């Protein structure tokens, strides 16, 4: 057979994830000091226990330090340090993650192996967190919040700051429906270029990234894990909408219930010490005082430097004093909004704006500051925060409707109020209670002294219910409940007439069904093509 008759030899077929499984993923590693940053709290706890035990026997500790026993202690400390470093090295080698077009995969663990997966179509939010110690060394934690209940979040820690920001942009772009460019054949690429190198795709509206030459990367044989960077997406541009001034934050803390309890606790301790002429009696008030101090510090530490911006990726929130946090909530992921005004804030007309996001509300006590759209907003800023979630309220004059929701009573603004019979079960706030249905959302108004407005977009309605207790049944009233994802917002319109509650149940179920059908896919960059 002549060479002319020889059929061309086909090049190797591209290796796909479907063909070889997870071995085809481009696996990446976290920063080498990640195990140390994760384990420092345990080391501090051990040292604290040792110090507490030693403090009970100061004389014995002095004898130990005065003899040769301290050499043994130093040897034990060195041994523990060496074991910790060796374990950290093995833990780092066992920890890796990969990003595909559909999910984020995480492998970790030495003795007990753990494999986790976060599907991008269920991605609810992406947070870049910098604890104090990691912040000092320029590292960040990337936390992925997915819909799936408690324990569904995936944490990638720790990464360099620029790497965490780039990975966040990549995950949001993939969750939006964008895809990485396919790599051209190896034969078509020049020898000095990376196979598949081409302009970095960007989210619409962002400036193109600068081009840079890269050295050649040798091809890897077989389906071995690839520990190399993959094409990324440039961060989307953003426009700041509002920020929280520090004087207003401090003023809101002074005008809060936690501060009132703190002042009362200090007064109680002082009076107790003076009256009893003993400090021992003050320890009964000390736990409540420490709780108030903890609440005040948590509010200050979590809300300091708060800023909100809008981008094609969604809503971006930045806040934190010792631990900084950058949250990105993609479009359509907010399930409900609550605008709340405590009694002491009414003189300044300040509002606290909270949201329900699947994944944020599963650990409400530990993560109170994560479900906040604005910690201390003016009325105009509160309306702007609501606009970030719901740009179209579905009414001709949204300002008038929201003013009626904030301070109105009865049928102001077109609200359906509670009947006069409700005064027997709610003598103080029954005039403030009301519900309004627009083309886009359901608004619930309540609270005479502690005002509250809850807004639920129709397409985010989870389920509905009408509840009626024996006293309500005798009065002919009922409570209409909108079930949402776990979080600070629990929408419910209490003490409506039976007829209004029943009609609202049927009509709202139909509105929610139609709104979900018209909402389009969860991948928001593909909605225009659907």
Topology:
Elements: H1 17-20, E1 27-28, H2 34-55, H3 58-66, H4 69-94, E2 96-99, E3 103-108, E4 114-119, E5 123-130, H5 132-136, E6 139-146, E7 154-160, H6 161-175, E8 239-243, H7 246-254, H8 257-276, H9 286-303, E9 307-311, E10 314-319, E11 324-329, E12 334-341, E13 351-357, E14 372-377, H10 379-389, H11 398-407, E15 416-417, E16 434-437, E17 441-446, E18 451-457, E19 463-467, H12 470-475, E20 477-483, E21 492-497, H13 498-519
Helix pairs in contact: 8-9
Walk me through the structure.
- The longest helix is centred in the first third of the chain and has 26 residues, at 69-94.
- The chain has helices at 17-20, 34-55, 58-66, 69-94, 132-136, 161-175, 246-254, 257-276, 286-303, 379-389, 398-407, 470-475, 498-519; strands at 27-28, 96-99, 103-108, 114-119, 123-130, 139-146, 154-160, 239-243, 307-311, 314-319, 324-329, 334-341, 351-357, 372-377, 416-417, 434-437, 441-446, 451-457, 463-467, 477-483, 492-497.
- The strands form 4 sheets. A 7-stranded antiparallel beta sheet has the order 7-6-5-11-10-9-8, sandwiched between helices.
- 33% of the residues lie in helices and 23% in strands.
- A hairpin with a 3-residue loop joins strand 16 (434-437) and strand 17 (441-446).
- Helix 8 (257-276) runs antiparallel to helix 9 (286-303).
- Among the domains are: 24-179, PH-domain like (Roll); 332-525, no CATH class.
- The protein contains 13 helices and 21 strands.
- It is an alpha+beta fold and 530 residues long.
- The two termini are 55 Å apart.
